[in-house]
Amino acid sequence: MDAIIRSTNSLGKGILHPSMGDTKFSLNRFPPSPDTSFFIQHYWVIQWDLRGQAPYCQTVIAHPNVNLVVEKETTRIYGVSSATSSHLLKDQGWVVGVKFKPGGFYPFWNAPVSHLTDQSLGIEEVFGLDSLSLEGEVLQQYHHIEQAAHRVDTFFRDRLPERDPNVELVSEIVYGIRDDRTIRQVNDAARMSGLHQRTLQRLFDRYVGVSPKWVILRYRLHEAAERMHQDEANDWTALSLDLGYYDQSHFIRDFKSIVGLSPEEYIRARKV
Questions:
Q1: 175 versus 221: which is more confidently predicted?
Q2: pLDDT confidence of 271, banded at 50, 70, 90?
Q3: Pfam families in the record, alphabetically (predicted)?
Q4: Structural domain boundaries in the chain
């Protein structure tokens, strides 16, 4: 796997105020092996050293993905977060994560992923083993993060379920929503996928854990936050229409309901 792994320090979409986080922690991502790539989008490693500094709280607008997080004594599988999630970093530490493809966790669990939304599971509830042995093997690799990602990949290669064709279908639809800004409504996503709206909604409930409407809104808010970070959002009416909203009031309402700040407040906070 070492020959396949590539890393990057780009924080990417969904991480709020990324320029502030850049100075507080590092984020590296590694692709899965060919065997696990049907189910897993990538592995990620976050490291920080804030000894002698104040703790730092990082807020994230979640993606429509289930994650396994390997962390000392708190290794768990996390469903999609319907709102933002905040993570307090202090002292020195690191975590290793698995970002499943949209729908990619379902074959391991065989239960509607919507049951896991805003919830978490211990890995023993899914894989029938204590998390401490995996934690120990992974977290001893602090100075060899490629090996940590490799160990987690091995864990899943040893436990691969049968490939479910709906995983590939759901992933393609979600990535299509992410990449095609003309998809602004659920009927747009249904037309793109060739599925009836109700079929699409049932598929997302079982495999993704959130609705197609949620996914569309979330990716548009990711884009809005990124534009604000890059100082490309000065006209709220134009931005709202570009993102598929009928007016700026609905965009501002949705942004504040998820982020907890209005767009103006978010920009001011970035400049502090």
A1: 175
A2: low
A3: DUF6597, HTH_18
A4: 18-157, 165-271
